[in-house]
């Protein structure tokens, strides 16, 4: 009799389970990779491309058709133009169908006629180039209606142009542009300041709020709900409210400060360096302290009472209990929160964009992406900044998984 | 340190600081409420507060007397709250009464165990903590309530009133329904009714699609064994961390070229992808916590895996599904960046995009704020109504923000 041994390798059941798992994951994987992985690769590709906002419309031949002349000298005219000022189009062709009642008398030599349909081979069109095709025609009917009929049938244009997005032209200009000068250092400094103090501030204020709400009392639920408002409200609503509240001309905050004698003249909170940067950081703290307070509160309430009772027996004072019991217990969640919030503050775009638009020394890396790509219309440079952001994130997430995930089991 | 723990010193210092907090609070609140010229006098509030604190330490009766004196002082003498010359006696007296009541009520509590002699460390720290707690409630309530108060009140006033006295948030109730003029105009002239509908539909579609994709995925990651499971679990978090602005650029390019830009369909295609990682992350955590035995019993009884998910797992995880739905709804409702970049046609705006449109110098302020209120109210109503689920959802999933 042979000894009973456990089966080796993967049995059919395990294989079936794995198959099912992949089946369940497949749609998610497909859609996420389509919208996350592909754009990420695209960003790398674009960052090496000399591409501006205007290049998004690929060069194409544009045509205008009109009926000109009068009486016995009537012509149909096609005016063709290259939409791009920098790229030639090769092999341009035009095909159109003439409406009933228009008969061609004399055709352009480049065109062939087949009944009412016209086909012209116009050759190449230079960058910004123009061309004209004319037919002498006779009309059978009212000139205006026939003219309208001719113009309403859209001629079909074809032509090949090299698309900047797909051709093999590469450049390092974008990165040179992004890294050159003091601007990049300044952007980096602003990002670091905003991220670090925004994260720390939100954590500390959140910790304070937790201490307030950790005791149970009547109305605690209401207060907790109220303190979550900044996070739950749409960013656009609260950002505009802050702008109006701190407006230098008609803002209530300025009026209040002047009345209280803190300042003589109105302060331009979101327009002056370095105050604007401080204000957007304060906004970040204000908006995200509820989040850290929720997390910390959840952790806090899972700490047992017995430890505190023991500390009471030993005569620990309230601050000692906080410092020696609560804080060490919360250290795990605090560090996880710090890293996650750090990454998310680093990624933050909407808040600064809405508050200052990146002006007055508040341009962070993410705002710089928008600024380069859309304000300066240089998509390539924007993509280069995005690549820089992505590389930073890779480093952060490496640190994250290295130091945190083991501890909190994420 | 132990010298600090004299009851008299503690009482005086905490009293001084607390009355200053009260004076700032009361004058800011009354300024916002009445538009009159009130300001806290820092030195006077410190002096009065020290006296009140000292008095409290010795006897509650002294506190009562001093509180009344401080309240009356607002009418004639320098007091914690100072007034502009044009402020009438009624408001002065009312301010005094509020200050006196507030100081009496709170100082009695803050300085509860504090007696004139030496304090134990316990008594001292307890008093400091009570002070900090009181300060905390005032501080947090103020910083949260003031912006929202300003938002609502600004939307009900008109531009010239606001310019005249930016502090006056009192309402002219004689206007009746005309208070809501800017809301009416937004609904009729600015098409906000349709934006509300668009936002709602987009958010609901996003919730639906997110659940559709993340439930199977989360179940697979949480329950089924396959190679690459751990790596997968981690990569969910990684995708979480890719900033939207990095993705928005290529998405903008792709949508421009395929004609999906400026269409609601394009938006509904993109939104779920930003929320699916959230849903996956939240749901897999919940699925892991469900007892596997129940599902195994189902399998033994002849159900297939998919039937187990449908008949056992999903009904058990309804609370988690509610949390995820609410959270995803909130993300989609509040989403601004993509809507801003991808939509140009005013007939297709979502609510946030519509509010962004109002931010122009030609459109009066109260319209912008009325738009903000319209965008905020629904999400707040949902949040307050279903706070339990929402809070759970926030804690489970909101590493994202």
Characteristics:
heterodimer, A: about 400 residues, alpha+beta, Immunoglobulin-like, MetI-like fold, four-stranded antiparallel beta sheet, about 55% helix, about 15% strand, B: about 400 residues, mainly alpha, 18 helices, about 75% helix, membrane (chain B), Carbohydrate ABC transporter membrane protein 2 (CUT1 family) (chain B), cell membrane (chain B), MetI-like (chain B), BP-dep_ABC_trans_perm (chain B)
Please tell me about this protein's structure.
The complex is a heterodimer of chains A (410) and B (401). Chain A is 56% helix and 15% strand. Chain A has 14 helices and 8 strands. In chain A, a hairpin with a 2-residue loop joins strand 5 (111-114) and strand 6. Chain A is elongated, with a radius of gyration of 34 Å. Chain B folds into 2 domains: 7-164, no CATH class; 184-397, Orthogonal Bundle (MetI-like fold), CATH 1.10.3720. Helix content of chain B is 75%, strand content 1%. A two-stranded antiparallel ribbon of chain B has the order 1-2. The model of chain B has no long low-confidence stretch (mean pLDDT 84). Chain B: Keywords: Cell membrane, Membrane, Transmembrane, Transmembrane helix, Transport. Chain B: Residues 196-386 form the ABC transmembrane type-1 domain. Chain B: It holds the Pfam family BPD_transp_1.
In terms of topology, how is this protein built?
The complex is a heterodimer of chains A (410) and B (401).
Chain A: H1 12-47, E1 61-70, E2 73-82, E3 89-97, E4 102-106, E5 111-114, E6 117-125, E7 130-139, H2 143-152, E8 156-161, H3 173-179, H4 181-213, H5 220-232, H6 235-245, H7 252-259, H8 275-301, H9 306-313, H10 318-347, H11 350-355, H12 365-375, H13 379-403, H14 405-408
Antiparallel strand pairs in A: 1-2, 2-7, 3-6, 3-8, 4-7, 5-6
Chain B: H1 7-34, E1 38-40, H2 42-58, H3 60-76, E2 81-83, H4 89-110, H5 121-155, H6 159-164, H7 181-188, H8 192-223, H9 229-240, H10 244-258, H11 264-289, H12 292-300, H13 305-316, H14 318-334, H15 337-342, H16 351-358, H17 365-385, H18 387-397
Antiparallel strand pairs in B: 1-2
Helix pairs in contact in B: 1-2, 1-4, 1-5, 2-3, 3-4, 5-17, 7-17, 8-11, 8-14, 9-11, 11-14, 12-13, 14-17, 14-18, 16-17
């Amino acid at each position: 009799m042979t000894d009973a041994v456990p089966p080796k390798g993967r049995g059919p059941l395990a294989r079936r389970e794995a198959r099912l798992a992949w089946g369940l994951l497949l749609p998610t994987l497909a859609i996420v990779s389509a919208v996350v992985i592909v754009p990420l690769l695209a960003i790398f590709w674009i960052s090496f491309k000399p591409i501006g906002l205007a290049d998004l419309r690929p060069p194409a031949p544009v045509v205008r058709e009109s009926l000109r002349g009068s009486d016995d000298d009537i012509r149909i005219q096609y005016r063709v133009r290259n939409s791009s000022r920098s790229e030639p189009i090769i092999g341009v062709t035009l095909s159109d169908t003439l409406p009933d009642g228009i008969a061609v008398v004399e055709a352009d030599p480049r065109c062939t006629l087949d009944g009412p349909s016209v086909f012209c081979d116009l050759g190449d069109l230079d960058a910004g180039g123009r061309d004209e095709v004319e037919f002498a025609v006779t009309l059978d009917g009212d000139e205006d209606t026939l003219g309208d009929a001719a113009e309403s049938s859209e001629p079909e244009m074809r032509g090949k142009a090299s698309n900047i997005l797909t051709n093999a032209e590469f450049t390092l200009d974008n990165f040179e542009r992004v890294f050159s000068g003091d601007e990049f250092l300044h952007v980096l400094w602003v990002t670091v300041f905003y991220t670090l103090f925004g994260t720390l501030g939100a954590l500390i204020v959140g910790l304070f709020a937790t201490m307030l709400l950790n005791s149970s009392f009547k109305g605690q639920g209401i207060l907790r709900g109220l303190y979550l408002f900044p996070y739950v409200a749409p960013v656009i609503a609260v950002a505009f409210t802050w702008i109006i509240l701190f407006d230098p001309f008609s803002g209530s905050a300025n009026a209040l400060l002047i009345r209280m004698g803190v300042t003589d003249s109105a302060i331009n909170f979101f327009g002056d360096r370095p105050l604007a940067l401080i204000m957007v950081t304060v906004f970040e703290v204000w908006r995200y302290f509820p989040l850290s307070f929720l997390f910390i509160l959840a952790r806090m309430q899972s700490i047992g009472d017995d430890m505190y009772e023991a500390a009471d027996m030993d005569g620990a004072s309230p601050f000692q209990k906080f410092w020696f019991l609560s804080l060490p217990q919360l250290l795990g969640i605090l560090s996880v929160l710090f890293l996650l919030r750090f990454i998310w503050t680093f990624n933050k775009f909407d808040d600064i964009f809405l508050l200052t638009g990146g002006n007055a020394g508040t341009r962070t890396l993410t705002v710089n992406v928008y600024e380069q790509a859309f304000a300066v219309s240089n998509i390539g440079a924007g993509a280069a900044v995005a690549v820089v952001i992505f590389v930073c994130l890779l480093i952060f997430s490496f640190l994250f998984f290295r130091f945190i995930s083991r501890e909190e089991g994420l | 340190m132990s010298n600090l723990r004299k009851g008299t010193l503690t009482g005086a210092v905490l009293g001084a600081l607390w009355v200053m907090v009260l004076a700032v609070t009361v004058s800011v609140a009354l300024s916002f409420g009445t538009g009159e010229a009130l300001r806290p006098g820092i030195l006077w509030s410190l002096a009065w507060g020290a006296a009140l604190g000292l008095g409290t330490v010795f006897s509650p009766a002294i506190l009562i007397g001093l509180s009344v004196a401080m309240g009356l002082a607002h009418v004639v003498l320098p007091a914690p709250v100072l007034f502009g010359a044009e402020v009438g006696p009624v408001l002065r007296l009312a301010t005094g009464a509020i200050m006196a009541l507030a100081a009496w009520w709170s100082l009695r509590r803050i300085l509860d165990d504090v007696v004139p002699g030496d304090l134990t460390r316990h008594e001292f720290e307890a008093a400091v903590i009570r002070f900090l707690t009181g300060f905390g409630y005032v501080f947090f309530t103020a910083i949260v309530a003031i912006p929202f108060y300003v938002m609502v009140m600004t939307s009900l006033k008109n531009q010239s009133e606001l310019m005249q006295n930016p502090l006056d948030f009192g309402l002219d109730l004689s206007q009746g329904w005309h208070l809501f003029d800017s809301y009416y105009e937004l609904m009729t002239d600015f098409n906000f009714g349709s934006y509300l509908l668009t936002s709602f539909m987009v958010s609901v579609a996003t919730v639906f699609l997110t659940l559709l994709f993340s439930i199977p995925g989360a179940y697979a990651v949480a329950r089924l064994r396959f190679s690459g499971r751990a790596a997968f679990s981690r990569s969910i978090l990684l995708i979480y961390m890719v900033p939207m602005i990095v993705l928005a650029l290529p998405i903008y390019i792709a949508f421009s070229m395929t004609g999906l830009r400026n269409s609601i369909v394009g938006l509904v295609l993109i939104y779920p992808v930003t929320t699916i990682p959230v849903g996956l992350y939240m749901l897999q955590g919940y699925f892991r916590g469900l007892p596997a035995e129940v599902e195994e019993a189902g399998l033994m009884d002849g159900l297939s895996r998919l039937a187990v998910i449908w008949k056992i797992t999903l009904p058990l995880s309804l609370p988690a599904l509610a949390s995820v739905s609410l959270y995803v709804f909130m993300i989609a409702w509040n989403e601004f960046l993509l809507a801003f970049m991808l939509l140009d046609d005013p007939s297709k705006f979502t609510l946030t995009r519509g509010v962004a449109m109002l931010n122009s110098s030609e459109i009066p302020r109260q319209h912008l704020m009325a738009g903000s209120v319209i965008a905020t109210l629904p999400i707040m109503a949902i949040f307050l109504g279903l706070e339990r689920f929402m809070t759970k959802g926030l804690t489970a999933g909101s590493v994202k923000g």
